[in-house]
Amino acid sequence: MGKRRHRILARTVALAAVATTVAAGCSVSTEGSAVSPLYDPYRVGGLPAVDGPSGARPDAPRPVGKVYGTDKGDIDTLALLAVNDIEEFWSQHYREPFAGKFRRVNRLISYDAEDRDSPLVCGSSPYGQPNAFFCPRDRSIAWDRGVLLPIGVKYFGPMSVVGLVAHEYGHALQYMAELVDRDTAPVVREQQADCFAGVYIRHVAEGNSRRFQIDTADGLSHVLASLIAIRDPVMGPDDDQMFEFGHGTAVDRVTAFQTGFVQGLDACAAIDLRDVEERRGELPMSLGEGRDGALETGEAPINERTLTVLFEGLNQIYEPTQAPQLVFASAPEDHRCSDAEATAPASYCPATNTVTVDVDALRTLGEAGDERTNAVLLQGDNTALSIVVSRYLLAVQKERGVALRSAATALRTACLTGVAQRHLSEPIELPSGEKLWLTAGDVDEAAAGLLTNGRAATDVDGGTVPAGFTRIVAFRSGLVGHADGETCYQRFG
């Protein structure tokens, strides 16, 4: 289908299930032990996880400044207000390790990507280019008011536009602070810019912006979702240059943003190619060739066979004393359990040690939408299969003797799912002769699911935590933590 040429996540397996999995671990936090603000179920990078208004403040000052090419509409008004606020923030917080002094950008430009008569921007026509960018040659920032920004507002809210402008201003900071040069890998530039955007959005979340406000639950999740929507497409075997010349995967971009939000300016300036590569570890970054020599499609069919193979692989990885049994549901009542709530499309029942799955409902969650318009958030087979894996993990946790009902359980499950991504980065030979493995894009699918439905980060009754930001932090802590899953049990005991 040529998915790798679009923004649709691709991913495959040879004849098997590709999914996430979970790792076992060993050591439970003692009761009453302190919880790091970063891993607190009810906080977001140390801030309370709360719902509330997101967008321009009702009493925000009017935007000031000139925008070339503007139609004076709501989109340009929002973008200019964002520039005003971002410039005010950085004029007050520009410091070491930045070099020199803060300087505002020279020029702001608005264009319509659907207008053939749009004037040249940074030396070329922006027609057909729904984009936003910083132009070093004249120190300008341009944005598409006709396509890209309206889509952002419609699907991800006004703060997604503010975050996008903050990213582009991050590029301006790189040049004025002499953090980049001609030899700097583009992916490093992009990751730093995402990180700088995170620093600024933290300022807004703390309530310190005169112009904008954002809640740390739903509002911040929408900003993260917008980053996922504009990630790089999944690469094929001939796209190796994109490892350094792209913007980054969904997890790359979210990680960089969260680094700025949580750790601040110094951590952003420290991002280099080695840092990006270490974060990616051994996870597959591009699609390869299948057994028949054809390019992997990136999607496994969600059916009983795939799920059966998935469970076979999980049993081999975890070797539980009493492996949970996979049951296929034909009616809602099949999910009923004497000691847990139903969590269709996949439920774990401790009393019977079974994972019940509604295959049709699960398939709907795993259908990849057409993301070429950036209007559909990433979704694929691993968005669905990771939910099933999370129910299997509850059985692993039950055998270990840890609590299955708590906010900590929800985050522990997300964390263990992250560990599993690493276990499946190499093909697993199964007794049946099938192979189970992770392919390019799987991690992104799982991360997107943690934002959109959160079901892979729930306890046995389906309870989760308020912030998608925190669910992804937990998932990523497993992805980069100890391979035995110890990190998950220590942080979310």
TrEMBL record:
InterPro entries: Uncharacterised_pept_Zn_put (IPR007343)
Signal peptide limits: 1-24
Pfam families membership: Zn_peptidase (PF04228)
Membrane topology of the entry: Single-pass membrane protein
Primary location group: membrane
Alphabetical UniProt keywords: Membrane, Signal, Transmembrane, Transmembrane helix
Subcellular location: Membrane
Protein name per Swiss-Prot or TrEMBL: Neutral zinc metallopeptidase
Organism: [Mycobacterium] wendilense
Highest classification ranks of the organism: Bacteria, Bacillati, Actinomycetota, Actinomycetes, Mycobacteriales
